[in-house]
Amino acid sequence: MTMRRNFPLYIALLFVMTMMSGCSTKPTSRYAIQQDHAPTRLPYSHEVKDIPAVFVEPSNWANNDYELDGMTYRVLKNAQGYKASGLASWYGSKFHGHQTSNGEVFDMYRLSAAHKTLPIPSFVKVTNIDNNKSTIVRVNDRGPFHPNRILDLSYGAAFKLGVLKKGTANVVIEAIHIKRPANFITNVCNIQLAASSSLIKARTQTTIEANQLSVPSFVQTQGRIHRMLLGPFSSLTQCEALLKKVRFNYPKAFIKVK
């Protein structure tokens, strides 16, 4: 009888405890680091060497209009004539090794950047008007989604432009328009399926996947690590389409752009 009389109270207490438990659970994140920070070393000279602006096929899956936090962003159809000025920031360790908007892996030491609406990929000249330093970066990600900032530089680009000490800089960004070359054929990307310490295993698995998809492949050895690669391919669009297929067997596969 006591249990029956107190049953509504028991249910109410159980509901409150459940809600409190749910509220105390933090949402999961794909990033191991909660707060972004600088790495333990500065970039090497070869990592921040000037990069050429070359024609690359536009990404198929990174150039759609999108919504974030109630805002709608309209991605530009092309970057020709684009020029803007404003505040640039930088990002580093938290995002290093994670995929950018078009499936590339973010290397914070290389010269790249994130922009909200420029086509991916784009090449832009960035000038730090506080010290007159400039460099060309490759736009391969979306951001920054912070008020009053127009560009997020990689750690390497921020180092080259003298932005690290202050954290932000007043910049001018100018898109570099490159026409598609006649008879455009170039090997621009590969897909890394995985890496293995066993050369035999790497060769076997790469060959099996390549034969099933009827695509070229190779194994790249660096020290004791053997990288399993499909390609090379002549367009980023090809890489993106193939990446979707191989992720069933290789969920951590990613695009490597040359």
Fold and architecture overview:
Helix content is 22%, strand content 29%. The chain is of the alpha+beta class and 258 residues long. The longest helix is centred in the first third of the chain and has 23 residues, at 2-24. It is globular and about 55 Å long.
What is the CATH superfamily of the domain at 66-175? Answer: RlpA-like domain
- The CATH class assignment of the domain at 66-175 is Mainly Beta
User: Rg, please?
Assistant: 23 Å
Can you tell me the overall shape? Answer: globular
Roughly how many Å apart are the termini? 75 Å
* Fraction of helical residues: 10-25%
% residues in beta strands: 25-35%
What composes the largest sheet? 6 strands, mixed, barrel
Q: Based on the structure given, which CATH architecture of the domain at 66-175 is correct? A: Beta Barrel
Total number of helical segments?
4
Short description:
The chain is α+β, with helices and mostly antiparallel strands and 258 residues long. The protein has helices at 2-24, 155-161, 199-213, 236-246; strands spanning 66-68, 71-73, 83-91, 112-114, 122-128, 133-141, 149-154, 169-175, 189-196, 217-222, 225-233, 254-257. 22% of the residues lie in helices and 29% in strands.
